[in-house]
Design goal:
The complex is a heterotrimer.
Chain A: E1 2-6, E2 9-11, E3 16-18, E4 25-27, E5 32-34, H1 36-52, E6 55-61, H2 67-74, E7 80-84, H3 94-108, E8 113-117, H4 128-136, E9 140-149, E10 154-161, E11 164-171, E12 174-178, H5 190-198, E13 203-204, E14 224-229, E15 238-240, H6 244-257
Parallel strand pairs in A: 1-6, 1-8, 6-7, 7-13, 8-12, 9-12
Antiparallel strand pairs in A: 2-5, 3-4, 9-10, 10-11
Helix pairs in contact in A: 2-5, 3-4
Chain B: H1 7-34, H2 39-47, H3 66-79, H4 81-100, H5 103-114, E1 120-123, E2 139-143, E3 146-157, E4 164-170, E5 180-186, E6 192-197, E7 208-219, E8 223-224, H6 230-266, E9 268-269, E10 272-273, H7 278-305, H8 312-343, H9 349-356, H10 366-382
Parallel strand pairs in B: 1-4
Antiparallel strand pairs in B: 2-3, 3-7, 4-5, 5-8, 6-7, 9-10
Chain C: E1 4-5, H1 15-19, E2 25-27, E3 32-34, H2 43-47, E4 53-54, E5 72-75, E6 78-79, E7 82-83, H3 85-101, E8 105-111, H4 117-123, E9 128-133, H5 142-156, E10 160-164, H6 167-180, E11 184-188, E12 190-193, E13 199-205, E14 210-215, E15 222-226, E16 242-245, E17 258-264, E18 277-281, H7 291-300, E19 304-307, H8 309-313, E20 334-338, H9 344-347, E21 355-360, H10 367-370, E22 373-376, H11 379-394
Parallel strand pairs in C: 5-8, 5-10, 8-9, 9-16, 10-15, 11-15, 18-19, 18-20, 20-21, 21-22
Antiparallel strand pairs in C: 1-4, 2-3, 6-7, 12-13, 13-14
Helix pairs in contact in C: 5-6, 7-11
Chain lengths: 263, 389, 401
C-alpha cells in the first residue's frame, strides 16, 4: 500500500504574536515547525504501516527550507519524502495549492491513500484536503479520528461531527484529513534520524509536474489578500482585588453589567 | 562549550533532549509524587533506539561507547534522574553480560536489552554488604546442571520491574576474594521473588526493591564467566558505569542551574531582578563553573574509558565523585536561590536536591571512590622511575 | 511573485523586516528588499505606516460572464428537524449583502423530508428557498451534498455563496468550490461588498493574531464559509418568499462513500462550540476530581466545560473538551480560564471570546494578558465562592451552605 502524507512547514505560533503596545505582529526567532496537525497525519499513516505494511511518502509544497520539515518526519519513520518547490508556486491560495499537490500525487502514480492534517495553523482554512481530493477525483473524509483497514481495499473511518461521530466506508484510493485523536505523534528514533540526515529529497518544480504558470501560484489563485490588520483592541483589562469573597462579588457585578446571560 | 561532537553524537544529544522536554518534564512531578515507575517514558526510549547505545551492533545495539551513552543520559537527567536512573541502571545490569558473558548469553540477553524490550538490573548490595562487597552472604550452590541461590539483595534499582538480573553470589567461601561469581537470574525463575518497594528521599520514580532468593534454581549456563571471577566482574562493571553516575550529576546540576538563572532574572526584589545582586550572581557563577567542570571531566573520562585504559578505575572514580558532589552543591544552591519557592513542591528544584543525594551514595559511596583514587595514586606513583624532587 | 516595495515611499525604517513571519524582507540603507521567500501573506503591507508595500494584482481581468451571476445564496444547514442557528446568521449577513447589491437572497436546503423548514428560512429573511429533497440526501456525505449544491449553483448562478464554517460546511463546501473552480475563504468573521460587487471577506489569520481581508476577483460565485455565532440573525417575522424545489440528476448526488453509522454524542447538554458560556480548567485544578467544581458552575450558567491540552493529555477529562490549537476553537460570550497558564496554543482557541475571565494564583501567568477581567486567586477557593455569590444573588442561598 502506498500512503502519501501532506505536511506543511509553518511558523511556530508561540513565536508569532501581537505586540500589546503597538498591536503589530512580532516574530521572534526563526523557529519553523511541522504543522502540528500534520504530525497526527504522519502518525496515522505510520500506524497503518506498522499494522498492515505500507510505504509512506511525505510531500510538502514550500520554499527550499521546507526540506527540514520533511527530514523531521523522515526521522519519525516515514520512508520517503518529496519537496514541491518553485518560485512560480508562491502566493498560491488553497485552490492553486490543491492543483499543485494533485499534480505531484499524480506524478507518483500508485497512491492508495492521502492523509492530511485537519488544517494548517497559519492559514487555518482546512480546505486543501477536500479541494485536492476533488481535483484528483477521489472520495474523501474529513475530521477523521480513527482509521481501520478492511480486508477489501476500503477503509472504515470514524469522523468527528458537530453532533457526535459518524462511521463511513471509504473506498480506496481516497483522502482523509485527521484530528489529534488519530494518533499522538511518535518521537524520532536514532536510526531514523540518521537515515533522514542522509536522505536524498527530490525537488519537483513546475516543469517536473507539467503545470502551466497560469494555473499555479498567485496567477492560478482565485483569491488573494488585499489587506492585513490588527484585530480591534480589547478594552482595558481589569484586575479584581481583595479577599476571595470580595473578588467573587466584584466579578459577579462586572459580568452582570457586561450582560452575560443566565447569571 | 564546544565539545566537538560528531554529527551522530549531536543527534543522540538532540533526540534525548527532545524526549526529556516532551516526555520527561511533563511527567516528572507526578511520577515523583506517586512513586510510579516511568513505563511510558521507558517505552518512548525503547522506540528511540537509545537503550542500545553502548551495545555492539551485532547484538542489536548502536555500537557506541560510554561517551555516547553519557550524551543521552545527561539530557534525560536534566529532566529527572529518577527516570534517567531507571534507564541507566539497565545498562549497569547489562555490563557483566557484555563484558564477560559467553557468546550464547550475549546473543540471548543483549538484543532485548538493546531494544528496551526487557530491562536489566544489577544485584550486588546486601543489608550487611554495602561498601564492603566481600561481606556478601548470598550463596550459589552447584547442584547437577543447576545452581541454587539463597539470600537477599537489598536496594536494587529496577528491582521488580526488570526482567534480567545480574546477581553476585558466593560460590566458594573458602576462596575469599576469588570465591564469588555472577549469575543471570530472570524474573519468573523458581524461588526468585521481590520484597516491598522502598520509600525513598529522592529518585522516587525509580523502583528500589529487595531481591529474595529462596532455593532459587537456575540452569548452570546462567553463570557469567568462570566461577570465582565475581569481584573482578563487579569492579570492571563499575569502571564502565561510574561515568554514567557522573553524567546523571551533570544533567541534574544543569537542570538546577537552568531553573536558578531563569528565576533570578524574573524575581524582582528591592526593585531589581535578584540576579543583579552580587551574592546571587557569585553563587550562580560558581554553580555554572562547577557544572561545566563536571561536564568536561565526565566527557573526557568517558572518551578515555572507551579506549580501555590502564587507569580506568581511578578515572571512573574521579568523574563519579566530582560530578555527584557538584550535583548536590548546585541543587542545594538552586533551592537557596529560589528561596521560599525553592522549598515548595510546586516548583521542581526541591526534587532535584532530594534526588541528588543518592548520587553520592550508590554505585560506591563517595568515600569509597576517594579510597579508590587514593589507592590508585599510591600504586601509580609507586611505579615512578624518577623523583619529582 | 512577491510583495512590491515602492522605493520612493520606503524610509528604510526596518519595521517590515521585523514582522515578516517568513524572514523574507531585508532592509538596507537604501530601502526594503523582498526576497524569494515571500509568500504574499500581506503582513508587511499593513504594518508599513508609509504605505510603501503592496501586493501584486491577481492575473487576468474579471471573469467574462461576471454579469451573468446575480444574487446572494446561503447554504442553510439543519439537523434533527430544526434549522441550525448559523443558517439564520447567514441570512442576516446575506440580507445586508443582497440589499447592498440590489439582488435576491436565496437559501438552499438539502436533505430528506424537509417539512416546513423552508418556511422558517423565509421568516428569517430568505426571498427564495431552493430545496432538494431526496432519500440519497437523508444522511450527509460530502459528494452527495456537494453535488446537489453544485447543480443549484450552475442553474441559479448566484454571485455570492455563503455557508457556515461548521464541521459540515468545512467538509463539503471546499469540494463545491473546487468543482466550480472558484475561490473560497474560510471562517470569515466579517463580510462586506465593494461598489464593484466584490465580496470583502475578512477572517483571522496566524491563529487569530491578525485579520486579513480577501477578495475573489475572477471566480464566480464568490464563496465564503462564515464563523458561527458572529453574524447577527434577523428577527423572524412574517415575510414574503417563495419555495422552489430543484430537480437534480441521480448521477449528480451519487456518493462513493457509504455511511455505516451515525452516533450522536450522548451528552446533549450545551456542547462546547455552541455554548454561550465556557468554563475551562487547567493544571491549577490539581486533580481530575476538581472538574466537578467547574461542572457545577457551567451547569448553573447553562454553559459547557472546557479544558487545556495538558489536563486532557493526562486523562483528567475527555478530549472533546479541549480548547486550543489542536482542540476546539470557541468564541462564547463568557470564557473563564481557571487554573490555565495561558500558553499561546490554548489562547488561540479562545481569544475570540467576548469576555474572558482568568482565574489563576500566579499573577505572572500569560493568561492575564488576554483576559478582560483577571482574578488572582486559587481557583479552588474562588470558584466555590463565586458559585455561592451567584446563588445568593439568585436568592437560592438559605444561610451558610
Amino acid at each position: 500500500m502506498h500512503i502519501v502524507v501532506f505536511i506543511k512547514q509553518v511558523p511556530d505560533a508561540k513565536n508569532v504574536r501581537i505586540d500589546p503596545e503597538t498591536h503589530t505582529l512580532v516574530r521572534q526567532g526563526v523557529e519553523s515547525i511541522v504543522n502540528p496537525f500534520d504530525l497526527f497525519a504522519v502518525e496515522a499513516a505510520l500506524r497503518i504501516k506498522d499494522e498492515h505494511g505500507a510505504a509512506v511518502t511525505a510531500l510538502t509544497m514550500g520554499p527550499p527550507q521546507a526540506k527540514d520539515a520533511l527530514r523531521d518526519v523522515l526521522a519519525r519513520g516515514v520512508d520517503d519524502a518529496v519537496l514541491v518547490s518553485d518560485r512560480a508556486f508562491a502566493g498560491a491560495d488553497t485552490w492553486a495549492t490543491s492543483v499543485t499537490l494533485a499534480a505531484a500525487v499524480r506524478k507518483m502514480g500508485d497512491v492508495d491513500l492521502v492523509v492530511c492534517g485537519k488544517q494548517a495553523v497559519d492559514g487555518d482554512t482546512a480546505q486543501v484536503g477536500p479541494e485536492t481530493a476533488t481535483v484528483l477525483d477521489i472520495p474523501y473524509a474529513t475530521f477523521v479520528k480513527e482509521i481501520v483497514k478492511s480486508e477489501d481495499s476500503s477503509l472504515k473511518v470514524t469522523r468527528q461531527t458537530d453532533e457526535g461521530t459518524a462511521v463511513w466506508r471509504l473506498p480506496l484510493p481516497a483522502l482523509v484529513t485527521v484530528l489529534k485523536e488519530a494518533g499522538e505523534p511518535r518521537l524520532p528514533s536514532l536510526r531514523h534520524k540518521m537515515r533522514a540526515k542522509k536522505a536524498e529529497i527530490p525537488v519537483w518544480g513546475i516543469e517536473e509536474l507539467g503545470l502551466q504558470a497560469d494555473r499555479v501560484g498567485l496567477s492560478g489563485s482565485y483569491t488573494q489578500v488585499v489587506r492585513v490588520f490588527s484585530p480591534p483592541r480589547r478594552e482595558e483589562r481589569v484586575l479584581v482585588e481583595g479577599s476571595v469573597s470580595e473578588q467573587a462579588e466584584q466579578l459577579y457585578r462586572y459580568l452582570k453589567e457586561a450582560g452575560i446571560p443566565n447569571l | 562549550m564546544n565539545y566537538f561532537l560528531t554529527e551522530e553524537q549531536e543527534m543522540i544529544r538532540e533526540l534525548a533532549e527532545q524526549i526529556a522536554r516532551e516526555k520527561i518534564r511533563p511527567a516528572r512531578a507526578r511520577l515523583d509524587e506517586q512513586e510510579e515507575f516511568p513505563w511510558e517514558v521507558v517505552g518512548t526510549l525503547a522506540r528511540s533506539d537509545l537503550f542500545g547505545l553502548y551495545i555492539p551492533e551485532e547484538y542489536g545495539g548502536m555500537g557506541g561507547g560510554i561517551f555516547e551513552n553519557c550524551l543521552a543520559v545527561e539530557q534525560l537527567a536534566r529532566g529527572c534522574i529518577g527516570i534517567a536512573t531507571s534507564f541507566a541502571a539497565s545498562g549497569l545490569g547489562a555490563y557483566p553480560i557484555l563484558l564477560y558473558g559467553s557468546e550464547e548469553q550475549k546473543k540471548e540477553y543483549l538484543p532485548p536489552i538493546a531494544s528496551g524490550e526487557r530491562l536489566a538490573a544489577f544485584g550486588l548490595t546486601e543489608s550487611g554488604a554495602g561498601s564492603d562487597v566481600s561481606a556478601i552472604q548470598t550463596a550459589a550452590r552447584r547442584d547437577g546442571d543447576h545452581y541454587v541461590l539463597n539470600g537477599t539483595k537489598q536496594w536494587i534499582t529496577n528491582g521488580g520491574e526488570a526482567e534480567i538480573y545480574t546477581v553476585l553470589a558466593v560460590t566458594d567461601r573458602s576462596k575469599g576474594p576469588r570465591g564469588a561469581s555472577f549469575f543471570i537470574v530472570e524474573k519468573g525463575d523458581p524461588g526468585f521473588s521481590f520484597g516491598k518497594k522502598e520509600k525513598k528521599l529522592g529518585i522516587r520514580a525509580s523502583s528500589t526493591r529487595e531481591l529474595v532468593f529462596q532455593d532459587c534454581r537456575i540452569p548452570a549456563n546462567r553463570l557469567v564467566g568462570r566461577e570465582g571471577t565475581g569481584f573482578v566482574v563487579a569492579m570492571k562493571t563499575f569502571d564502565k558505569s561510574r561515568p554514567g553516575i557522573g553524567i546523571l550529576g551533570v544533567g541534574l546540576a544543569q537542570g538546577a542551574l537552568d531553573l536558578a538563572v531563569e528565576y533570578a532574572r524574573k524575581r524582582v526584589q528591592f526593585e531589581k531582578p535578584i540576579i543583579n545582586f552580587q551574592a546571587v550572581q557569585h553563587k550562580l557563577a560558581d554553580m555554572a563553573t562547577k557544572t561545566e567542570a563536571a561536564r568536561a571531566l565526565v566527557y573526557a573520562a568517558a572518551r578515555h574509558l572507551d579506549t580501555e585504559p590502564k587507569d580506568a578505575s581511578k578515572v571512573a572514580a574521579m568523574c563519579k565523585v566530582f560530578a555527584s558532589d557538584v550535583a548536590m552543591e548546585v541543587s542545594t544552591d538552586a533551592v537557596q536561590i529560589l528561596g521560599g519557592y525553592g522549598y515548595m513542591r510546586d516548583y521542581p528544584v526541591e526534587k532535584m536536591m532530594r534526588d541528588a543525594k543518592i548520587l553520592q551514595i550508590y554505585e560506591g559511596t563517595n568515600e569509597i571512590q576517594r579510597n579508590v583514587i587514593g589507592q590508585e595514586l599510591n600504586k601509580e606513583y609507586g611505579r615512578l622511575k624518577e623523583s619529582f624532587f | 511573485m512577491k510583495a512590491i516595495v515602492d522605493i520612493d515611499k520606503c524610509t528604510a525604517c526596518g519595521v517590515c523586516e521585523e514582522v515578516c513571519p517568513y524572514e523574507a524582507i531585508v532592509v538596507t540603507e537604501t530601502g526594503a528588499e523582498i526576497t524569494d521567500e515571500c509568500t504574499l501573506c500581506g503582513m508587511c503591507v499593513d504594518t508599513c505606516e508609509f504605505g510603501a508595500i503592496s501586493l501584486p494584482e491577481v492575473g487576468a481581468g474579471a471573469v467574462e460572464d461576471a454579469g451573468q451571476y446575480r444574487g446572494v445564496c446561503v447554504y442553510a444547514e439543519w439537523r434533527d428537524g430544526a434549522v441550525h442557528r448559523v443558517s439564520h446568521e447567514l441570512l442576516g449577513a446575506g440580507r445586508e449583502l443582497a440589499d447592498a447589491r440590489g439582488v435576491e437572497l436565496a437559501a438552499v436546503l438539502l436533505g430528506h423530508s424537509l417539512g416546513d423548514l423552508p418556511g422558517e428560512l423565509v421568516a428569517h429573511g430568505a426571498d427564495v428557498v431552493y430545496t432538494v429533497d431526496r432519500p440519497e440526501l437523508a444522511r450527509f456525505t460530502d459528494e452527495a451534498y456537494a453535488g446537489a449544491l453544485v447543480e443549484i449553483v450552475r442553474k441559479k448562478r448566484p454571485e455570492i455563496l455563503l455557508a457556515g464554517a461548521t464541521s459540515m460546511g468545512r467538509s463539503f463546501i471546499p469540494r463545491v468550490a473546487a468543482t466550480l473552480k472558484t475561490g473560497l475563504t474560510a471562517d470569515c468573521t466579517r463580510l462586506g461588498v465593494s461598489d464593484e460587487g466584490l465580496l470583502l471577506q475578512t477572517r483571522p489569520a496566524f491563529g487569530g493574531n491578525v485579520m486579513a481581508t480577501i477578495v475573489c476577483p475572477r471566480g464566480r460565485p464568490q464563496m465564503a464559509t462564515v464563523r458561527p455565532k458572529v453574524m447577527k440573525a434577523l428577527e423572524p417575522a412574517r415575510r414574503e418568499g417563495r419555495v422552489e424545489e430543484v430537480d437534480v440528476s441521480a448521477e449528480s448526488i451519487r456518493s462513493r462513500v457509504e455511511v455505516l453509522e451515525v452516533i450522536p454524542e450522548e451528552d446533549r447538554t450545551a456542547k462546547l462550540t455552541e455554548a454561550d458560556v465556557v468554563i475551562s480548567g487547567g493544571r491549577g485544578l490539581q486533580k481530575a476530581g476538581n472538574f466537578a467544581l467547574l461542572d457545577e458552575l457551567a451547569r448553573m450558567l447553562g454553559g459547557a466545560v472546557g479544558a487545556s491540552r495538558s489536563v486532557v493529555d493526562d486523562g483528567w477529562i475527555d478530549p472533546s473538551h479541549q480548547v486550543g490549537q489542536t482542540g476546539r476553537t470557541v468564541a462564547p460570550a463568557l470564557y473563564m480560564a481557571a487554573g490555565i497558564s495561558g500558553a499561546v496554543q490554548h489562547v488561540v482557541g479562545m481569544q475570540g471570546s467576548k469576555t474572558i475571565v482568568a482565574v489563576n494564583k500566579d499573577v505572572n501567568a500569560p493568561i492575564f494578558d488576554v483576559a478582560t477581567v483577571g482574578v488572582v486567586a486559587d481557583l479552588l477557593e474562588f470558584v466555590p465562592e463565586f458559585i455561592k455569590t451567584i446563588r445568593r444573588a439568585r436568592g437560592e442561598d438559605r444561610g451558610e451552605k
